[in-house]
Amino acid sequence: MNRKELNPDASPQAAYGARLRSLREARGWTQDDLAERMEYSSVHISAVETGRKSPTLRFSRSADHAFGIEGADTFERQFRELRQGSLLEGFPEYVGHEGRAAEIRLFEIGIIPGLLQTPEYAEVLADSAVKRGAITAEQAHERVTLVAERQAALVRPSSPLVFVMLDESCIRRPIGEPAVMDAQLERLAEFAELPNTVLQVAPYDMGARRTFNLPLYILTMPDRSLMSYAESAHRGHLERESSFVLPLLAAYHQLQAEACSQAASVAMINQLRKGTP
Question: For residues 97 and 220, is the Cβ–Cβ distance under 8 A?
Fold first, then answer.
């Protein structure tokens, strides 16, 4: 068989593929051997090694498991560095922790957060960024793929508790065609029915009682440590110092107490779906 020579310096994706091949060959495995261990086809393994196919979060985690890699030099970390070009600084690191969190608390303004987005809703947002020249079409595809991967990472034996607080603007701001928005609102109602979730809307009439003016994410890890993630227009910041995160958690609880109950929030969403103001 013809063996394609790899140049790991050509691009981050090429470096990923070259490393995958190098580790595989160091163990004396064929592509079929690795494919069986990772539950992928040998064709898929070959395509990633030669840079013809981009790795995914699931693929990277499977590779780490197959090779027994832990710590700082994982394929998952390398994958997140690949994604850095289309994501805000700090976000790939946050997503890595999100996939292992015991509790996730979100507050969002203006748009539905990624963990709750339908594929169609996510695509509209990504396509809009392409039209504005903010990202490339390839980066748009990466963003939509990451939304799906983040959601899939939450489907695990010990599912996290997920608390979602939406400013009323999230559900009233139309994104895409009416059918896209209707399906998105239906997804929210379905999310609220899950046993490990709480969905609340912070209504406009809260006024100054709304405790946050920017989106915020708070994670409680399995060891009960806390971290928060917040974004400006140009960068994201992951905070691990509990003295900074605890006041944010207290403010989140205050917001929950002031917001609509889950039942009232779902009723508001269903009224919007029926076209009722």
Answer: no
Its pTM stands at 0.70
CB 43 within 8 A of CB 54: no
Architecture of domain 88-113+159-273: 2-Layer Sandwich (3.30)
pLDDT of residue 186: 96
Angle between helices 12-26 and 42-49 (to 10 degrees): 130
What pLDDT score does 86 carry? 53
pLDDT digit string (tens) for 63-98? 999 999 988 789 988 887 666 555 556 677 788 888
- What fold is seen in the domain 12-84? 434 Repressor (Amino-terminal Domain) (1.10.260)
Give the separation between CA 256 and CA 7, rounded to whole angstroms: 52
262-273 and 178-192 helices cross at what angle (nearest 10)?
160
Report domain extents, the chain. 12-84, 88-113+159-273
Do 116 and 92 form a contact (C-beta atoms < 8 A)?
no
Q: What is the dihedral of CA 222, 266, 207, 106, to 10 degrees?
A: 20
C-alpha pair distances (Å), 124 with each of 2, 58, 130, 188, 262: 42, 24, 10, 17, 27
Q: Can you read off the two tokens belonging to residue 216?
A: 């915020």
